[in-house]
Amino acid sequence: MTKTVLRGRILSFEREPQSPEDVEAFSYIEDGALVIADGLIEAVGTFDEINTSECNVVDHRPNLLMAGFVDTHLHFPQVQVIASWGAQLLDWLNNYTFPEETRFVDKAHADGIAKVFFDQLIAHGTTSAVAYCSVHTESAEAYFEEAARRDMRMIGGKVMMDRNAPDGLRDTPQSGYDDSKAMLEKWHGRGRALYAITPRFAITSTQEQLEMAGALAGEFPECHIQTHLSENHDEIALTKELFPEARDYIDVYQQVGLLTDKSLLGHSIHLEPREIDAMVDTGAHPVFCPTSNLFLGSGLFDYEGLRARGLVSGVATDIGGGTSYSMLTTLAEGYKVLALRGQKLHPFRAFDWITRGNAETLGLADKIGTLEPGTEADVVVLDARATEAMAIRMDRVETLAEELFLLQVMGDDRAIAETYVAGKAMKQAV
After folding, report:
1. What are the backbone angles phi and psi of residue 192, rounded to the nearest 5°?
2. Cβ contacts of residue 108 below 8 Å, gap of 6+?
3. E runs forming strands in 218-292
4. pLDDT digits (tens, 9 = 90+) for 284-341
5. How many other CB atoms sit within 10 Å of the CB of residue 148?
6. How many angstroms separate the CA atoms of 166 and 248, rounded?
7. Is 355 helix (H, G, I), strand (E, B) or coil?
8. Average pLDDT score over residue span 81-94
9. Is the peptide bond before 62 cis (omega within 30 degrees of 0)?
10. By the 8 A CB rule, do 55 and 35 touch?
11. Inter-axis angle of helices 137-150 and 173-187, to 10 degrees?
12. What is the pLDDT of residue 94?
């Protein structure tokens, strides 16, 4: 077996940087070698100390090698409604998203969108993601089949929604349970696939359906749970109207067993003190979606406030309310959101967040998110001189932190020189 060695500057985070000066939180090798065999990272070190005889050496100098990016919240069926004008959350769902998702009952359509969806992830350096499919099993099948073809570490699930949605986009409590369980048993743990139990959000599920989703989560506690929480004031008001017995929005999920350390709660912007307490008590994870929060005018995520309570938050693109597949662009907009709150997102912490940090949020830091030996060989190659404007700025860059901040603010898919999935170069093949 011929091994592959990737040569370049290597950056991998070992823990969350606590300050801009916390350089012990990561390892950085100026002229490094990453040895890949059987889809895994076998060794990492300086190029001089690694035995490269009988290896296929790919020289990426002077570019930067990092773990592939991890996206913790996006919607596979919304590829063709990105950049739909002029609405806040509930109107946007009803006018654009729901009509689009009805098309995914057609397996051929779902297959075609799956291909371009995964092409875009790879083009933007994202090697793992957590996605919502539509209510149709055809959608989930297309998603997992395409992920398997590319051998990507992906999490997903068909949404469960039995009310407040158009014809052709509703299941029932029983069919939602049955279809989700069938998809889970077929795909969870198959290759690199993982299943997420996916009640879309409180407004589109009856109490009975949420109870059945909770029962499924109880049967399969190893599975992730993904849903939405407190994105928009009108959404919160309607949820309280639909569930008058609940103490607050998050209690709708908490009462039925959907609040655990496997729960990924998209948005989590307008939280009441008791809701934050409930997250802390259960280990549930808020997920910050800056481009969609800005695009839909939803609000400003309190990163530092939640972090101070010990919560481990994800960060995500939220395609298609989100406006870019790029985790770099997501960091740029996240920086601005936090600045409006008087908070700062240093580039060390930012790049830890979209690699090891998001992997930790998913409980997968032993598999993805770092370049540690034994982890899966998902790698992104970053070129901070990818555009003329970036190259001009790079002429004045003196430190690694400055280079990372340049990538954070000005980077997009053009800054992704290559994306490796399980050790295979994928971007140039797209």
Report:
1. -105, 10
2. none
3. 224-229, 263-267, 285-288
4. 999 999 999 999 999 999 999 999 999 999 999 999 999 999 999 999 999 999 999 9
5. 15
6. 27
7. helix
8. 85
9. yes
10. yes
11. 10
12. 86
